[in-house]
Amino acid sequence: MGLINDNPENPFKEAIPGSPAFITSIDKVVNWARSNSLWPLTFGTSCCAIEVMMAAGAAHHDLARFGAEVARPSPRQADLLVIAGTIVKRMEPLLKTLYDQMAEPKYVIATGACAISGGPFIYDSYTTIRGAHEVIPVDVYVPGCPPRPEAFFYGLLTLQKMIIEGQTIAKPFERRKPVLSVLPPRIKLEQIRDELVKNLTARSVTDLNQNPKELGL
Amino acid sequence: MSQTIESFKLLLENAFSEPLTYLEASQLLTIKVQENQLFATLKTLKETLKFDALIDHAGVDWPNENKIELIYILFSTHHNQQIMVSADIDRNQPTPPSVSSLWAIAEWQEREVFDLLGVTYKNHPDLRRLFLEDNWVGSPLRKDYKDDFILERPW
Asked: Is B134 an 8 Å CB contact of chain A?
């Protein structure tokens, strides 16, 4: 926190100002505190931003349950950069600047197919960057196009677990490879679909069991 | 002030001395003009027929016909009518006249077409790139555009 890390042997030396004698016992508290107050930067470049920032942050799914609801419009006050959307060549220097402006410790989650690999724009595109890891180091990948809020929460919980265990890419000697956070197998696609059906039926948006042929489609 | 298409077509034909070429390809009322009559036609549409809004201006690349088609979609708040003007220009030397003196918004829309299709407008006050980097080489929306960054589709 403000001190320069001269000794990469001890990854936590720069984390706490003061005597290194206390550090081993404070590690767990600091990591626990950091993992439970991840303030995300309000940064979205396309449709994933709607899903991740608005759907996940709104009342139904409620990002505040995981202590990450305080979206900061300034990178100086943010801990977590959620790359939600396509990164194009013109966006690349801006994304790099935002990442550099964030204070340590900083964490990065890349959501959606575009931020992972370029997604639908991977071929025949003259401007789409193929994966956010080409620009800045990424801690957790959340697959989906866009991912459901549950998937994003799972990615957030994965990052929290990594922080508690001290394994993030901000400490390059701890872990070099980003983690792909896929929803666990016990959550079935049917369960997600059932929830969708329940929500849509309750709000009378549409008849999900309708026959397209009767509608003349 | 809304009129039917037929009565509006009469109004349109009275404003021009020469007969108009209509295109049936679009749902919009579309007229086809030559490149050398493009500016005069648009000026007549603006000043006589009160087409005061240039809604959209775009370019289409046709490499097989060796032409670039310029599209102008105009709207008249006076007549409540929409019209599309299409003009074919040479693909190798695309130098159509700029209409930014008629509609100020054309300045930006022509910068976009210049950026992505390489059409250099004559008498444009500020013809710079809009979306791409300043040192970009080539026009990426042309069908035969290639560079080192593009990943070819493997199938």
From this structure: no
For residues A29 and A51, state if they share a domain.
Answer: no
Burial class (CB in 10 A: 0-12, 13-18, 19+), A49: buried
Shared domain for A127 and A177, answered yes or no, is yes
B49 lies in a domain?
A: yes
Q: In total, how many domains does chain A have? A: 2
Residue A52 included in any domain: yes
Residues of B with CB below 8 A from A127's CB? 132, 140, 149
Boundaries of domain holding B13: 5-93
Structure tokens given for A38: 């991840």
Q: Do A126 and B140 touch (CB under 8 A)?
A: yes
> Residue A5 pLDDT > 70, yes or no?
no
Rg, C-alpha atoms of chain B:
17
ipTM of the complex: 0.73
Expressed as residue numbers, the domain containing A47 is: 39-202
Is residue B50 domain-resident? yes
Give the whole-number percent of chain A exceeding pLDDT 70: 75
Does residue A160 fall inside a structural domain? yes
State pLDDT tens for residues B79-137.
888 899 999 999 998 999 999 999 999 999 999 999 999 899 999 998 888 888 888 88
Residues of A in contact with B154 (CB under 8 A): 123
Which CATH number goes with the domain that contains B68?
A: 3.30.460.80
B153 with A123: Cβ contact below 8 A? yes
Q: What is the mean pLDDT of chain B?
A: 88
How do strand B81-90 and strand B30-33 relate by DSSP bridges?
A: parallel
Q: Region A160-178: what's the mean pLDDT?
A: 67
The pLDDT value given to residue A1: 39
% pLDDT > 90, chain A: 10
**Do residues A118 and A132 both lie within one domain?**
yes
Q: Which residues contact A181 (CB under 8 A, 6 or more apart)?
A: A140, A141, A142, A143, A151, A154, A155, A158, A159
Chain A partners within 8 Å of B131 (Cβ):
90
Q: 3-class SS at A66?
A: helix
pLDDT computed for residue A18 by the predictor:
52
Is A71 in the same domain as A168?
Answer: yes
